[in-house]
Amino acid sequence: MANSFLGLVIGNSRLHWAWFVDNTLKKAWDTNHLTPAAVAQLIKDWRSNVMSAEIFPSQLAAQGSDPSKLLPLYIASVVPAQTALWQNYSDTTILTLEDLPLSGLYPTLGIDRALAVFGAGHRYSYPVLVIDAGTALTFTGANQNLQLIGGAILPGLGLQLQSLAQKTGALPAIELPAQLPKRWSLETSEAIASGVVYTVLASIRDFIEDWQREFPNSPIAMTGGDSEQLVTYFQSQFPAIAAQIIVDPYLIFWGILSVVGS
Ligand SMILES: Nc1ncnc2c1ncn2[C@@H]1O[C@H](COP(=O)(O)OP(=O)(O)OP(=O)(O)O)[C@@H](O)[C@H]1O
Ligand SMILES: CC(C)(CO)[C@@H](O)C(=O)NCCC(=O)O
Ligand SMILES: [K+]
C-alpha cells in the first residue's frame, strides 16, 4: 500500500503525529489541538503542496512542495469534535474498530485503546496488557487469540491533580514531582502528590498482578504522556514491577502501521 503516509492520533490533551515511510516509523511528534480555522488553513496549504512548518517537522515540510508526495492521512480519534475538522482533506481515512482483527470489542471502546493493544501484541506478543497513562489512565488486555479480555478506565495523573485544584477552595495546582514524593507528608503540595502517586502506583501494581495470575508470561507495555514518570516512581517503590514494564511511546503507531502498512 501507501509507502509513505501520516498517522494522526487525536487524544484528549493533544495531537500525536507520525510519519511512516516504507513500513517504518520515520518520525513522531506532538502538537496542541488545532482550532477549526487552523485545520482549514492546513488543509488548504496542503492542497497547494505546502506543509506548514509550524505543524510538520522540517524534513516533511520540505517534501510538501512535491505534488507527487501528497501524503495519505490515517486518523485515530477519541475526540469526535476534532475528527470532524479533518474530513475535508480528501485523502483522509478515519480508522475504526472494524479495521482491527481483534475479537470481543465492544462498540464504545476507544480506538486508541484498541490500536495500542493491537500494536503491543503485534510488536511484543500476545497475551498482552497495555497501560496508557494519558489524560485518562487505561488498562487494556488481550489474550493469545487476539480477543479483548477487557480493561479499566480512571482519571490520569494530570486530571486527578487538576480536578483537586479546581474543585476545592484550598488545594493548589501542582506538577508531578520528578522523584517519588514522601508518603507521609507534612505539607499540602506534597500531600497531594503522595495521595495521587502512591494510590496510582498501588492500583497499577494490583491490575498487573491480577493480569499475571491469568497470563503469567504476558508482556506489560506502558504508553502515554505520563509513562516515563510513572516508571521512574515504580523504580523507587516497586522495582520488581518496574523491571517488567516495557515503556513504549509508540504503541498506537505500531497499531496503525500494522493496520495500514503493507
Ligand atoms: N507536553 C505535554 N503536554 C501535555 N501533557 C503532557 C506533556 N508532557 C507530559 N504530559 C502528560 O501527559 C498526560 C497526557 O497524556 P497524553 O498526551 O498521552 O494524553 P492524550 O493526548 O489524551 O492521549 P491519549 O488519548 O492517548 O491518552 C498528562 O497527564 C500530562 O501530565
Ligand atoms: C478512555 C479514553 C478517553 C482514553 O484515551 C478513550 O479510549 C475513550 O474515549 N474510550 C471510550 C470508552 C472505552 O474505551 O470504553
Ligand atoms: K485521552
Automatic annotation (TrEMBL):
GO terms for cellular component: cytoplasm. CDD domains: ASKHA_NBD_PanK-III. Its cofactor is NH4(+); K(+). Substrate binds at Y106, G110, I111, D112, R113, T188. Pathway: Cofactor biosynthesis; coenzyme A biosynthesis; CoA from (R)-pantothenate: step 1/5. K(+) binds at D132. One of its GO terms (molecular function) is metal ion binding. It catalyses: (R)-pantothenate + ATP = (R)-4'-phosphopantothenate + ADP + H(+). ATP binds at V9, I10, G11, N12, S13, R14, L15, H16, T135. It is an enzyme of class 2 (transferase). Keywords: ATP-binding, Coenzyme A biosynthesis, Cytoplasm, Kinase, Metal-binding, Nucleotide-binding, Potassium, Transferase. The keyword Lipid metabolism does not apply. It is found in: Cytoplasm. Its EC number is 2.7.1.33. The active site is at D112. A monovalent cation. Ammonium or potassium. Homodimer. Belongs to the type III pantothenate kinase family. Catalyzes the phosphorylation of pantothenate (Pan), the first step in CoA biosynthesis. This is Type III pantothenate kinase. It comes from Moorena bouillonii PNG. The lineage of its organism: Bacteria, Bacillati, Cyanobacteriota, Cyanophyceae, Coleofasciculales. The gene is coaX.
